[in-house]
Structure prediction request, 600 residues.
Amino acid sequence: MKTLFLKDMRYRQARVILTTLGITVLISLILLLGGIMNGMRIQARQYVESTGADVWISAEGSGGAFIGFSMVVEEYMAFLNSGPGLVPDSASPLVFAQARPTVRGKSTKAIVVGYKLGQLGGPKSVLEGRMFTRSNFEDYRPEDPVPYEVVVDEKMGLEIGEQITLSNEKVRVVGKAKSLMFVLDTPLLFMDVRIAQKLLLGNTPHVNMMIAKTNKSDQPAQIASDLDALETIEVRTLKQTLTDIIAYYVDEPMKAVQFLRVMLWLAAGILVGMITYVTMLEKTQEIGVLKAIGGSNGYVMGLLLKQVVLISTVGVLLGLILSYVFAAAAPIFVAIHFVESIIVACISFIVCCGSGYLAARKAIAVDPMIAFRGEI
Amino acid sequence: MAIVVEGTGLTKRFGSGDATVVAVDSVDIRIEESELVMLMGDSGCGKTTLISLLGCILTPDDGELHIDGEPINPEVQDLSVIRREKIGFVFQLFHLLPYLTALENVMVAMDLARTKTTEAENRATKLLTQVGLSERFHHRPAQLSGGEKQRVSFARALANRPKIIFADEPTANLDSRQSDNLMSLIQELRQEHQTTIAIVTHHEGLKENADRVVQMKDGRILAT
Prediction:
């Protein structure tokens, strides 16, 4: 009777569905938590990588660009632009500051990126509208300043011509740039560095960092190391900056989530194992009956394992599908890695089947009479 | 008459240390072909444990067992083969698989013996008709009365043409009318299939149906 295991499962469909759902939910949660962290890492990297800079210069003691409080005086620009190993005139001032602009009457989190148009630090073109008006950088505090204009991330949903409020000033949206959302879907607002200084840094001639390109023939690590010898600045390569930013914005704040994820892994393993184990042990009476009427251990084990494998397979597959569905519908960027999801699926499958096998082995190891009396 | 089952010095203990209970204590027993033997005695005297040992669904701690002339050694033998080919079991609580119909419950025993499905279905149909359940082939155990369930149990026990059927208190959950009907059925089946039957019961009224009564007390056989 090849369908015996299916008949049993149909008879106990409520339990089968609950067990399958239990596996599904646990796998989805594990994958989603991992996906959130992956998403944060991707978002932390994408702006930094998009700048095209090879070295990142911040104030001495700041711990690196993006990490601690960094204010660098503009005078270093001249030094860097003629510095050894750097592409001439590639050094760019950068304001990178968290802000809470009011958008359509609601206070919203955002990151203001102030840079020199045409230099490193922001988009060179827009998807819609135009770039903001460029100020004369060298003309600090001009009598006739450029208008407050901003190029927004396309995903903010703002229209060209709309106004947002930043530090009590109205800033007009003039363009939309390709989305480069920062960690936890924080949109970037690109504007002229002088406007950013005025709105966020008290109109002082400081920037948070400077970035530059290195000559192709030179090693960025060596150049960064040479520049870092100066006592007033810290210089990091792109690789170091990425490591810093991921550690600062993702790994450190998400330590608790990482811990939770490990705990969830353990809990999932134990829970899934227990569900399968208990489900199997509850079948000991039937196992006893089947053995008493002549079922061999192999036959009974096969019957039980078919059920475990089917439940595990469906639960794991549903978990995978559900995690991708939730990831797509999540209000933040969730990036589930395919390889990671396959590993999670395989491990979960092995845990489910393993615990089911252990329970089944225990149940079939005893005399039928003991089994159907439920005395295991 | 050939001996179908022979147990010598069969002993079974449960528990350990001070809590050890000797359920069956050095029992010698023989059951001959075509016999209808009744094992009787008070509750807890070891009747069920003894037929479980004889039926190879429980392993003895001591003693020797022969079934159909063949020595039984649980250490080296796959007892499921013996249970499948030589023994039929009927339980007090029927123990039918709840997710199968009456027909499938009988067929499953033959499935274990790798009987072809068509052949199994034909035999199951014949057996269920014999036990008076021709109208109940596709009913699940939950849709059957106690007496009907027990008839399905007997049909299942007969499915693989066993040498002996062990029935543990088959009438315990039946009313007196159902009990009488079942005993008549057992006699009919015995005639029809020439099967040896050993029944555990504490029902004194059933004695008259037996060829031989084995009386037990405290794990030992008092009289036979």
